[in-house]
Amino acid sequence: xxxxxxxxxxxxxxxxxxxxxxxxxxxxxxxxxxxxxxxxxxxxxxxxxxxxxxxxxxxxxxxxxxxxxxxxxxxxxxxxxxxxxxxxxxxxxxxxxxxxxxxxxxxxxxxxxxxxxxxxxxxxxxxxxxxxxxxxxxxxxxxxxxxxxxxxxxxxxxxxxxxxxxxxxxxxxxxxxxxxxxxxxxxxxxxxxxxxxxxxxxxxxxxxx
Length: 209
Description:
Number of strands: 9
Largest sheet: 9 strands, mixed
Order of helices and strands: EEEHEHEEEEHEH
Number of domains: 1
Low-confidence stretches: none
Radius of gyration: 17 Å
Strand order of the largest sheet: 3-1-2-4-5-6-7-8-9
Helix content: 10-25%
Mean pLDDT: 92
Structural class: alpha/beta
CATH architecture: Alpha-Beta Barrel
């Protein structure tokens, strides 16, 4: 059984594949925070800019197996168009994503991506891995395509990640009331440490999901 908060067709707004048409499938649940305000103070990661509780979002629901979910994802993609691409996110998608689901999507010609906090082992057949470390959690996924660090985080210093095996390193300003100030600090850090590239949530600037 897969539990999905929401599913929709949009443009990827962040990171190395910003601007790419994508189906976003947001799984319910996270291992670092319940998503409920009452639990925020004690959570390992107490910030998140998305709702990952329940299955009541647009396109959300409970899907009995990998075939039923992959067929729904395929129906969200524009009919007969190539370059199929699905991004699994959350919450924490590694709690639910399976090799069988990815295999089912591969049979439908999808490229499969994940946006994960990196604290859980991943299926071996994912095509694109984005790791976004959070708080003082233990990072298990230490290689992938891009590392996208929300900045600043008191517990996490960007320089500690350079030894990891990623092709791209992004800093992304934290989405909160101090975002304008954090954006300027992120820009300055990237200028002073050019191994890092700036990632902005462009979908929010242009008004899409």
